[in-house]
Amino acid sequence: MVPGDRKTLVSWLPDVLLLIGFPILAYFSVREVLKRLDPDAGAKAEAQQKALAASNRLQSIFSNHDRDDDDDDEPRDQDEYGDDDAAYREDRREPLVLTPMEQTIAMEVVTPNEIPVTFQDIGGLDGIIEELRESVIYPLTMPHLYSSHSSLLTAPSGVLLYGPPGCGKTMLAKALARESGARFINLHISTLTEKWYGDSNKLVAAVFSLARKLQPTIVFIDEIDAVLGQRRSGEHEASGMVKAEFMTHWDGLASSTREGGSQRICILGATNRIQDIDEAILRRMPKKFPVGLPNAGQRRSIFELTLRETKVDRGVGQGGRKKAFDVDMLVKLSAGMSGSDIKEACRDAAMVPVREYIKMQSREGRSMRGIRSENVRGLQTEDFFGMRGSVGVGNGLQRRRTGEVEDEDKMLGTGSGSSKGQQEEEEDEWRDVEDPDEVDVEDVRR
Do strands 158-162 and 287-290 pair parallel, antiparallel, or not at all (unpaired)? Predict the structure, then answer.
């Protein structure tokens, strides 16, 4: 190369570097500017990190469960594996690989040991609990016992709990997942809501594909009427597509697994507006359990369960005519209250002795450091009355008079899940109770 050519090449070098470097610099600059202009950039990054963490957590739990589950009861295909049980198990334990959409759904997965509620924590619903055990838990946990006899002996693909608010539907769902040992996908409405066209459908598909990978699985949808309500001509196209996608995958649960057994997946819904659920959805939920307002025996069970760790006054009231704590009176005056109302009334009442003790200590000028819990008196019947703004007993009777409970009974269609004889007994019970507005606290004390 002659010296003149070398000089020409050197003179071109800056232009070449500029020509190559400028587009690269412009690309990174524009990307950084767009990132700063995106208000959701931080949220997206955080969501991706959470999804990845949920996926890793699920992978760890899934692997540990398979290692410990040496006595798994799933049916084996002996023709394919013969006596080589190790080969069967090695083939069955495929690595848990999740798609990006499945990682999003994985954030909603709750394992049984993370659920603090058991059937023993639920009062007054023994009949429904026993039916759930027989129709859902046993087929999910012992598929070999059921599927080996008949293809009809499988867990229902859908279960619906319906009734007034505060009657224990969500607690039943949690306890069902805990007792069955199934993975629990607590599907929120917001999880299926995406702004990009078609993404909601992909998320619905991810729900079922993830449930298959984690089975036995319970997919719980609270307020299911808001997601899978009746289809109307004026609703948004995206909403109709989500419902259609959901039902299509739901129907696919009837197909068999690779091992030849039925898929151990159950869709569990809860609602207090059963009349708003689409008929096609109701058809796919053959098991429907009305969870209505508790009767007298159920209310007693709820009171005893709620107050089992609370100190109560076992003495007699002033004058010695009545017990200081009379659960029979509370059961009678709480007619028409839900389980949640009773629990809140117990919480309000339990605060009364504590407030009294603190006020007494303050009046006597004693230091609050000297307060001892064992010096607080026990709970009395009168503590359930009188606090303005609290959920006191007797409010259920007020709801009966205003017709709220009758409206709920009509919604249930079965009289709050009670038989005709139970309904008549309940009606006689609350009619015989004196008006809560006329209940005199002084009379309760006496």
Answer: parallel
